Amino acid sequence: MTRELSDVTRAKHGRPVHHWRRDVIELAALFTAVAVADAVANLIGHGPDGPALLVISAMALVATAAFHTWWARRHGHAPPTDHTGARPPAPRRDQAGPSAAAPALPGAAAASALWRMRTTVKDEPGSLAALCAALAAHRVDILSLQTHPLAEGTVDEFLLRAPGEVEAAGIARAVTLAGGGDTWIERADPHDLVDAPTRVLGLAARTALDAAELPLALRQLLGRCTIRSLPGRPPAGGRGPEEVPVEGALEGTVMRLRAPEGGVITVERPYLPFTPTEFARARALVDLDARLGPRIPRSQDVLTLPEGNAITVRRADTGDLPAARAMHERCSARTLSMRYHGPVGDADRYLHHLLSPRFGRTLAVRTASGRIVGLGHLLWDGDETEVALLVEDEWQRRGIGAELLRRLVALAVEAGCESVYAVTQASNTGMVAAMRGLGLPLDYQIEEGTLVITARLEAAPVTSPPSHGGRRQEYHGPGVRD
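^ thats the sequence. predicted structure below, dont judge the formating
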């Protein structure tokens, strides 16, 4: 065993391997040949049939040489059956592109891309193997695989790592040719490298800590989809959502789940239908949320305004309804109309919806006496996110709105939102100034006096929102009308 290992070691360094037994055998063969030649010479010289034996010997030598040549050509350069692969085969001259045996360039791993792919295959032996072979032909590495059995066929969900030059269309085409159907592929995030059970447990933990995380957890669980929460009683009146069974309903690309407060959570996506496995996971998250009841983190920050007044900023929920209604009573009709874009008398109807963690996150600004003087809302609107501000008249032009907006944007970035938009009136110069103060790319749309300002968050710093309990800090924000 030691000899064999040493031979392999020498072969790895490019040195030929010699065996001492081979040398002994060659010497023995040489002496045998000399002895045979001497015996033949004596026989030819002293025997009666010397010339005939000489001719026969010559023919035997020629036949032996021919056989040796044929044998050497057939077996002399063939690798042994237990080839160790220490010396890779030479690249073929007709191979296109770089050789597979060429050394990897520095940073080659960084050029790879992560992809999430879903495809439907027949539930037959060999169907998955054909898919894997097609991906391997394009040098695509399968990092994880989940299977979702259906009545007919199976939905396979892959996490792939592919060379940077391989495009999504090429991967999808190869999978389709290998038997995949209804293939969908998109860029993956490094966070997707976590295995499915760990990811689901993490989403459950986030949902348990904060009720506002449920829509975000569903979106991360199910991929790119649109999630809408409809209250049991619309804030402006009218018909409520259709009745949904306790166990929910699954209809192709749409699933509907009964929300704990009596409303309906609708999840929809335009590509592959939801599988029973995905439906069960989503229903489990909603059931967990229902069992835990309303909850939000109770941390708060204490800020000191330029004039010396101390205020606190913390999360708000439906428990703050009385204080929020009291703030409405202190606000002017103009302030309320700028915020709600409708009859001032209907303002209180929206508060229960706005303060519910089910539909987003709300930040409240309180004075030292406990009065709420400002509210900032981050609302999940399908696959979009809206921000809205309301600051009591006596507390405007102190930078409170700008501070609330900055914190709401930090929460949106933490939630993975791509943009936020604000709906206001063109005359609301305070909201316009606060949006400009974010320092982010803005898009403006105006129609009949209504202004929609969209801030793209790809340029926003990825930092955790400032929400450390009991922290006190000085605030010297610009004076803007909120």
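The longest helix spans residues 20-46.
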